[in-house]
Design a protein that fits this description.
Layout lengths: L16 H9 L10 E2 L23 E3 L4 E4 L4 E3 L17 E6 L12 H18 L4 E3 L5 E3 L14 E3 L4 E3 L5 E6 L10 H18 L6 E3 H4 L1 E2 L4 E2 L25 H6 L5 H6 L2 H20 L4 H18 L2
Parallel strand pairs: 4-7, 5-10, 5-11, 6-10
Antiparallel strand pairs: 1-9, 2-3, 3-4, 6-7, 8-9, 12-13
The protein binds zinc ion.
């Protein structure tokens, strides 16, 4: 167990006591990097976008059962595959949701393939359960399966970064819920049943945990490679996530915090994998980074190098 190195604060940033405690309490685990929570940086965190938060409808638990839980908005959550994992740190309250595709084998969605679709879905969820990969998986028939308990961390996001107007988050496994849709990017998207189920699940989670709409994001938006400082280590839902149809604002319009806050970069591979909507968020983040550098009277690349050094410091502090 290592404590955070004492470093002089730079660019006005400092680690909170909660962050230091977190390192002390959170041992090395297969979950990947720990969450680093930082003090608010109002002077550097530009408003994410002129975006109105969409307030979720009130959703409540109607009945709890070993088989399934029922909610007031029609959501039914299957409990057959539920499994516990390492508990979430701090108060256990998730700050956001990361959406994934399972990138698993897909059979054509047709009536005569029902048995095959059922078998593929069941095998997939069993695999996800073994690896404790996500909190929820929505299969192609729109069934919402609870896998990792909501109060626990799941192994869904790896090295990942997001930020809202108050905080920056690094290592989202432990602070964001993981919701996967059984889908493959190369295939034709998701089914109407998945869309409907996803909408009710998001509404329930946002209502229960008061999750801001701007913290409902995709793996393609948050995933990073800390070794080469590139964004988009994983690119699932890189540019085609149906935010609006799921009752959310178009969060592709938000600048990528990995670039704006920590000096990461996009590259050709990301440009190819991500859609034009996500490339726009790269552009916005670069502009924000340049603006913050100018406000401090330093060159952009010097500022980027300093941000990376700070990220490297956090990375080294993680056991
Ligand atoms: Zn993913």
């Amino acid at each position: 167990m290592r404590r955070p190195a004492k470093k002089p604060p730079q660019w006005g940033r400092r680690i909170t006591i909660a962050g230091s405690l977190l390192f002390a309490l959170w041992p090395a685990s297969p979950l990947g990097p720990a969450t680093v929570k930082l003090d608010p940086l109002p002077e550097r965190v530009a408003p994410a976008a002129a975006q109105q938060d969409i307030v979720p409808e009130a959703v409540w638990l109607v009945s709890r059962g070993s088989e399934a839980d029922l909610y007031s908005n029609g959501l039914r959550v299957e409990n057959r595959y539920r499994v516990s994992n390492v508990g979430r740190p701090l108060d256990g309250r998730p700050a956001g949701i990361v959406f994934h595709t399972t990138e698993s084998h897909q059979a054509p969605f047709a009536e005569e393939r029902s048995r095959e679709l059922t078998r593929i879905g069941a095998n997939l969820i069993a695999y996800i359960r073994r690896h404790k990969s996500y909190h929820f998986v929505i299969d192609r028939f729109g069934r919402v399966n609870r896998v990792v308990e909501e109060a626990d961390a799941a192994n869904h996001a790896g090295w990942s970064i997001w930020a809202d107007a108050r905080r920056e988050y690094v290592g989202l496994n432990q602070i964001f819920l993981g919701v996967a849709l059984e889908a493959e990017t190369a295939a034709q998207g998701i089914t109407p049943a998945q869309l409907q189920a996803g909408k009710t699940l998001i509404a329930m989670l946002r209502s229960k945990y008061e999750i801001a709409a701007a913290n409902c994001v995709t793996h393609g938006q948050v995933s990073v490679n800390p070794h080469n400082f590139r964004v988009g280590h994983h690119t699932d839902w890189g540019g085609s996530f149906p935010f609006t149809d799921l009752g959310l604002p178009d969060n592709y319009s938000l600048p990528l915090p990995a670039i704006a806050h920590f000096g990461f970069r996009s590259d050709g591979a990301f440009a190819q994998a991500a859609g034009p909507r996500l490339l726009k968020s790269v552009e916005l983040a670069e502009r924000q980074l340049a603006g913050n550098a100018a406000a401090r009277g330093v060159m952009v690349e010097a500022y980027r190098a300093e941000l990376r050094k700070q990220f490297q410091g956090f990375k080294e502090q993680i056991p």
